[in-house]
Design a protein that fits this description.
binds nicotinamide-adenine-dinucleotide; six-stranded parallel sheet
Length: 351
């Protein structure tokens, strides 16, 4: 279901606490535990106010419910937020304190919420959080965790892209397909390597010129600036940087046939899924295409095995194929079909 127009709450729990060590607000929203404990990352970010942080936790936790449900995971939707004051992110003891304060808030939920890394946090932070709570994933591999999720996210994006190409071009083969990858960070750089290996012709862009090295050994890859890459005439546009990159202004200027990338909230608002369909562009719902990371981390709950993570990420191809079939049969956008799929799972769990 798309976000309600106003932030009407349909969540199970919202915990807001001011840390006793750091004085920083730590917030956790649990949207749904219908399918299992709520799993979602801890975002450490600067917000204009703690209310803004709470709003973000509510919005993101809801999205996690639909993402996990649509991908067949037995986990619910939750999200943690650490509301930083303006300025640089804390380091050293200040960072340690804020993470322990967040871990206290995780414990308040008594296992209904399990945390993981997200924007602003990483596996080292999860290790600190694990000093205080056991409800934590995303630890590094030496500590029995699932490690960096981005290779699995990239694997899942490629799998989703293959299903989309099959739908549009009649074959899932990526050999000779032109793909613009916008954002060559952790996920984007691995996607570039995978696509290069599959024989795709690449246009790659990042605001950080130092990322250019990702195309070094790829003869069929060109480097350009992000705006040109967004509007390049390609088979597939893969946004792998920030959210909101497709908006009311550029939607009619895109020259791709498929949008399929890792960025969260690729669309500035969800109504743009209809606009893309109107333009004849197939939009792979971001929360399906980028689910490899959550699939990977969710496996920690039952004992992590990399082979299962690989199989799960590769399975996104089948999920996307089924979605595209449903979308065509029902005459709705792939995004609407993804929400329908998630709703069915949630209803069967609560019914
Ligand atoms: P990252 O920070 O490693 O990489 C992001 C890259 O985008 C950076 O290299 C940055 O310089 C670049 N960038 C920023 N603004 C840009 C712009 N306007 N144009 C072009 N490039 C720009 O992040 P990541 O982990 O690779 O994640 C990328 C996206 O995928 C994010 O939206 C993230 O939420 C989403 N995502 C990541 C994972 C994961 O496993 N890491 C899982 C699910 C979703």
């Amino acid at each position: 279901m798309p976000d309600p127009p106003l932030m009407s709450l349909d969540h199970e729990e919202l915990v807001i606490r001011r840390g006793r060590r750091s004085g920083v607000y730590t917030i956790i929203a649990v949207h749904s535990t219908a399918l299992g404990p709520a799993l979602g990352g801890c975002r450490m970010w600067r917000y204009e106010s703690s209310a803004e942080g709470a709003r973000d936790a509510l919005r993101l936790s809801r999205a996690m419910t639909f993402k996990s449900a649509a991908c067949g995971l037995n986990v619910g939707g939750g999200k943690g937020v650490i509301c930083l004051e303006p300025g640089r992110a804390p380091t050293g003891k200040a960072r340690h304190d804020v993470l322990l304060d967040f871990a206290d808030t995780v414990n308040v939920l008594e296992g209904n919420y399990i945390t993981a890394e997200d924007v602003g946090t990483g596996s080292k932070d999860m290790a600190v959080i694990s000093e205080v709570t056991t409800h934590v994933t995303g630890l590094d591999r030496r500590r029995g965790g699932s490690g960096d999720p981005s290779p699995y996210t990239a694997m899942g994006v490629e799998a989703a892209m293959r299903a989309c190409c099959e739908k549009v071009f009649g074959t899932s083969d990526l050999e000779g397909r032109t793909v613009a990858v916008v954002g060559a960070g952790r996920v984007g750089s691995q996607l570039v390597k995978r696509l290069g290996k599959a024989g795709a012709k690449l246009i790659v862009a990042d605001i950080d010129e130092s990322r250019r090295a990702v195309i070094d050994s790829l003869p069929d890859a060109k480097w350009t600036d992000p705006s040109s890459a967004m509007l390049a005439e390609v088979d597939v546009l893969a946004p792998c940087a920030l959210g909101g990159v497709i908006d009311q202004v550029n939607v009619s200027r895109l020259r791709c046939q498929i949008v399929c990338g890792s960025a969260n909230n690729i669309l500035a608002h969800e109504g743009l899924a209809d606009d893309l369909a109107h333009e004849g562009i197939l939009y792979a719902p971001d929360f399906i295409a980028n689910a490899g990371g959550i699939i990977n981390v969710s496996l920690e709950l039952d004992g992590y095995e990399p082979a299962k993570a690989r199989a799960g990420a590769a399975g996104i191809e089948d999920t996307m194929r089924a979605l595209l079939q449903e979308s065509e049969a029902a005459g709705v956008t792939p995004l609407a079909a993804a929400y329908r799929l998630a709703e069915r799972r949630l209803q069967s769990a609560s019914g």
